[in-house]
Amino acid sequence: MQRDFWLERWQNGETGFHQEQLNPYLGYFYGEKGVPLEKRKTLKVFVPLCGKSVDMLWLAQNGYQVLGIECSEIAVKDFFETHDLEFRIVEGKRFKRYISDAREGHARVEILQGDFFDLVLRDLEAVTDIYDRASMIALPEIMRLDYFKKMVELQDEGMRTLLVTLTYPQEEMSGPPFSVSENELNDLYSEKFKIDKLLGKDILADEPRFQQRGLTALYEIAFKLTRK
Ligand SMILES: C[S@@+](CC[C@H](N)C(=O)[O-])C[C@H]1O[C@@H](n2cnc3c(N)ncnc32)[C@H](O)[C@@H]1O
Which of 30, 158, 200, 212 sits a CA distance of 20 to 30 A from 132? Predict the structure, then answer.
């Protein structure tokens, strides 16, 4: 899934992956189970391949600084405009930075418009956490290897990721979203990351669009990854 594929999808409004509701895993692990509100301003959450996810708005409204990266300018502009967030643009060599400074009601939100694979470690300065929903599973197996290598490069020891994956029989449906099995995750990540499985559930009954695409099983699993 090269960038052109995604740019075209945004251009054509084919954004079935976008959810209008807060992701329940995020709400639970960063809300109820998260650190107290007054401590959150020291935390900065990196959201790779962020689209225009409302999860970023929730994070910012709940005290977390946000840093996203997204290749589509349509998605980035849409995010700030839909939520009436004032923003300024800083043009750079690799990225166009869209920044909404902290104010009453939300912490700072910055989205880098550009290619995830152009990121370097210093771009993630002060990042403490990573939230990956529909990012790793947006990529075919061959690109997931590059994604993994980049994630290793971008993280210092102790960095935590909340990763939400989908697992299904890959032969029944062509992605995206792609299936990421627990085995694949262990094979790729276990040397460099501690992997904790947090929650998993059968979601096939809630996903008629995937049933129509031929799926007979579909599990959503949340993991916590900690960079060793
Ligand atoms: C399946 S969507 C998920 C978006 C978001 N995480 C969400 O939960 O709604 C994947 C997103 O990644 C973006 N994307 C794909 N490849 C990218 C790349 N190399 N660099 C930056 N963004 C990319 C696409 O434009 C798309 O918005």
Answer: 212
The answer, yes or no, to whether any atom of ligand 1 lies below 6 A from the CB of 117, is: yes
User: 68 - beta bridge partners?
Assistant: 47, 111
Q: Compute the distance from residue 168 Cα to the ligand 1 centre, in Å.
A: 20
157 secondary structure, DSSP code: T
Between CA 45 and CA 8 the distance in angstroms is 27
CB 14 less than 6 A from any atom of ligand 1: no
What are the strands, taking DSSP E only, across the chain?
44-47, 65-70, 88-91, 96-100, 109-113, 129-133, 160-167, 193-202, 219-227
pTM, entire model: 0.97
Region 27-54 average pLDDT: 95
* Ligand 1 centroid, distance to 198 Cα (angstroms): 24
Rounded to the nearest angstrom, the distance between the alpha carbon of 70 and the centre of ligand 1 is 6
Look over the chain and give the mean of its residue pLDDT values, rounded to a whole number.
Answer: 96
From 85, 111, 130, the end of a domain falls on 130
Residues 102 and 172 grouped into a single domain: no
CATH of the domain at 214: 3.40.50.150
- Same-domain status, 153 and 220: yes
Q: Is the pLDDT confidence value at 1 over 70?
A: no
Q: Kindly tell me if the per-residue pLDDT of 119 is higher than 90.
A: yes
- The pLDDT of residue 18 is 95
Question: 191 and 82, same structural domain?
Answer: no
Q: Which domain holds residue 149?
A: 134-228
Checking if the pLDDT of 168 tops 80, the result is yes
